Each structure stands twice: as structure tokens, then as C-alpha cells.
Amino acid sequence: MEYSRFYYCASLILSISGLVFPVMVGSIGINYGQIANNLPAPDNVVPLVKSIGATKVKLYDADPRVLKAFANTGVEFIVGLGNEYLSKMRDPEKAQAWVKTNVQAYLPATKITCITIGNEVLTFNDTGLTDNLFPAMQNIHTALVNLGLDKQVSVTTAHSLAILEVSYPPSAGSFRKDLVGCITPILNFHAKTNSPFLINAYPFFAYKSNPKQISLDFVLFQPNQGIVDSKSNFHYDNMLFAQIDAVHSALASLGYSKLPVHISETGWPSKGDADEVGATLENAKKYNGNLLKIICQRKGTPMRPNTDFNIYVFALFNENMKPGPASERNYGLFKPDGTPAYSLGISGTDAVSANTTTTTTTTGAPAPPSPDSSSNGYLSISAAVKERCCSCIGQLLFPLLLLSYLAFRLAF
Ligand SMILES: *[C@@H]1O[C@H](CO)[C@@H](O)[C@H](O)[C@H]1NC(C)=O
Ligand SMILES: *[C@@H]1O[C@H](CO)[C@@H](O)[C@H](O)[C@H]1NC(C)=O
């Protein structure tokens, strides 16, 4: 009897913590772009990803070297199917072959959980490309169903925030009218297949195009007065949350208020051209440092409080071969040699500097940091992020203990 009570109580406590803990563990995602000719070998990238506390990685392709390097690491992967392959995927056999080669081959050792079909397709304004998007998503999903993988791998696409016609105030968020026709079947697909809606959101772009009107503190998550959405009465103290809630409003206006919204990209460049106001090392450090803290605090947006953030920071590395303005090549948290591009400004990381990290091998690739070296810069970042996440866990520990105590009283 005593034992059965004990087990009842213990299992109750376990199931309560099972409900609470997955929501509490800090879950940072990072985009691993590779438009560069000087990046470290994927094997050496594993410790870098771990050092920032990231548990999720998003690729723009399905690079076999990366997927192999991350086997049995527990890191979750979003793999990408590039825009250039969409037309081919109209053929169901080619779609199935793609899934076999690029996804099934790596499961279950590499934890691929999602495939993004194309990136920012709808805002290219290329009707041919747009027409191929939905059939490609359907065919890849059907291939997953055929291979028995659809329960573990979802299918989605990543949109630019420019699919919105109105993004301010957040309660007035709506999609570009000319896109509603092609977005609606995609939303229906998400609802049916349980896949998330992905949006790339950059407060940097808004600030860059309007630096005189927009408060820098508001876009960098620094203390500021914030704004009140007069229709919803919600108070916003940062632009990213306002952008995310504008997406929630746009989805709700089409009847899809329940779709989970994930932020597939957000970030801030540490360098830019002379006319790119705000692209500085200091601002990048504030934006990304504060962002990581917010991900760990997991307080949700005003419209979706207590909802777990799924945010993928852009990006892991500076990418020297990206076209466009200088900012495009300077979004990385890390330089190509594996040293941090800047301190993330989280307590404990300020000591991190370029020369405490790696030694360069003769091949030019950084040696993997030794896991037990206390002077290792990567580990200092890791420790600081973990410390932050632990303090959020600390905040939730009291209610958890209270629940456990109540369960205990109930059982005895
Ligand atoms: C696409 O079309 C929209 C609406 O017509 C326009 O506002 C936008 O600038 C265009 N984007 C590009 C990249 O051409
Ligand atoms: C590298 O380390 C030395 C001490 O070991 C320090 O004086 C120097 O400032 C560091 N350089 C950088 C770029 O942080």
C-alpha cells in the first residue's frame, strides 16, 4: 500500500514535471548558411553550435557532410529544398527520390524533423516559382507518408515578412492581397498536416529604412517606453514581438489563428555599408544577446503569452560570398575561423575574445575546441547561456514544487 502510494505520487510528480520541463528547457535555433569559401569543416562546427546552447539547426540545403557530422548529437534539423528544385518536385517520383536521399538516409541518427520547401518564394514575385511551391510541398509530404516518415518530419516553407501588406499596428496585420490566393491552400495544408508557419523577421530592415522614426532601443530589446496597440490595448516593448503578432493577426484574418508561428530567421548584422544605418558590432551584440535571453525567458508575445518561442537566429557564420550589401555578409555570430564575431553580452561572455578559442591547423580549419579547457571561449558562452536558461527554470521551480507537494498531500 505504502509502495503503491509512493509510486502514484512519484508518477504524478514525474508527469507534472514532464508537462512543465519540455517547455522550460531553453531551445535556441540557429541558421547554418554556407555561402562562403572559408568555413570550418562541419565536424568542427558541432562544438560551436553546442557552445551557444543551440539545440536546433536550420540548413538551406541537405548538405550530407553536415547531416553526417551531427549524427547522434541530439541536435534537431530543419533541412531545406532550394528554390531551384521546386519545379522538379512537381514530379512525385522525383520528390520521393529526394526524400529518400536527403532525409530518410540520415534518419534516425540525425534528427531531421522538418523540411522547408523553398525560401521566401512568394516575395520573389515570380509566378512560375510561386505556382510550383504548393505542389512541391504536397509531393514531398506525400513522399514522407509513403515512406512512413510523415509523423516525424513535417513540411513547410519560410516566408519573408514582406508577405504582409500591413504589419503595424500588430492587431491590423494582414497578408498582401495579391498573395491571399496562394497562401490560403498552404495554410490549409499546415492545419491538416500539423506543420508550422515559418516567417523570417528582421527588425533591422525596418530600422534601416526609417532610422529617424524608429527607436533603436525598441528594435534592440533595450529598455524603452514601447508602444501600445490602440485596438488590442497590448503593450509592445520590442519590434520583433510586434512583427510576430502582426503575423498572428494576418493568420487569424484568414481563419487560421491556431497555426503555430515559428521565426525561421532573425538577426542583426555586425557590419554594413555606409548607408546601412544601425549595422554595427555594438547593435548586433545587443540584438542577438538580448534575443538569446528572451528565448530563454520564454514569456511569449502579448497575443500569445506563455507560448514557447521557436526562433532560429541568423546566422552561425559570416558568409563571405553572399551578394548584396555588406550587411548580408556579416550576420554571423562566428567568424569563419570559429572565433566569436563579438561577445554576446550575456553575463560571463564578455571575457570571450578571439585568442582564447582555437588554434589554426595547417589546413586552415580550426581545431575543435577541447571540451575540458576552462579557458575555452566557446564554453564560456555555453555556460552563460545555460546559466540564463537555468534561472528561468529556477523561476518555474517553485510552482513545480508546490504542485508536487499538493500531489503528495493528495496521495497520502
Ligand atoms: C513584389 O510585388 C509587390 C507588390 O506588387 C511589391 O510591393 C514588391 O516590391 C515586389 N517585390 C519585388 C522583390 O519585386
Ligand atoms: C589576447 O590575449 C592577450 C593575453 O593573453 C590579451 O592581452 C589580448 O588583448 C587578447 N587579444 C584580444 C584581441 O582580445
Average of per-residue pLDDT values: 84
CATH H-level homologous superfamily name: Glycosidases
Quote the CATH topology. TIM Barrel
Care to count the β-strands?
14
Strand order of the largest sheet: 1-2-3-4-5-8-11-14
Tell me which CATH architecture applies here.
Alpha-Beta Barrel
Number of helices: 11
| Helix content class | 25-40%
How widely separated are the two ends? Answer: 11 Å
Q: How big is the Rg?
A: 22 Å
Count of spatially separate domains = 1
Question: In brief, what are we looking at here?
Answer:
This protein is of the alpha/beta class and 412 residues long. The chain has one domain (3-410): Glycosidases (TIM Barrel, Alpha-Beta Barrel).
Please tell me about this protein's structure.
With 412 residues, the chain is of the alpha/beta class. It has a single domain (3-410), classed as TIM Barrel (Alpha-Beta Barrel). The chain contains 11 helices and 14 strands. The chain has helices spanning 2-24, 42-51, 64-69, 92-102, 127-146, 180-193, 203-209, 216-219, 239-253, 281-297, 377-411; strands at 28-32, 54-59, 76-81, 111-119, 154-160, 164-166, 174-175, 197-200, 227-228, 235-236, 261-266, 300-301, 304-305, 311-313. The strands form 4 sheets. It has an 8-stranded parallel β-barrel, surrounded by 5 helices. The protein has a two-stranded antiparallel sheet with strand order 6-7. Helix 2 crosses helix 11, helix 4 packs across helix 5 and helix 5 packs parallel to helix 6 (180-193). The longest helix is centred in the last third of the chain and has 35 residues, at 377-411. The chain is globular and about 55 Å long. Residues 6-25, 347-384 and 386-401 have low confidence and may be disordered. One 2-acetamido-2-deoxy-beta-D-glucopyranose binds next to loops.
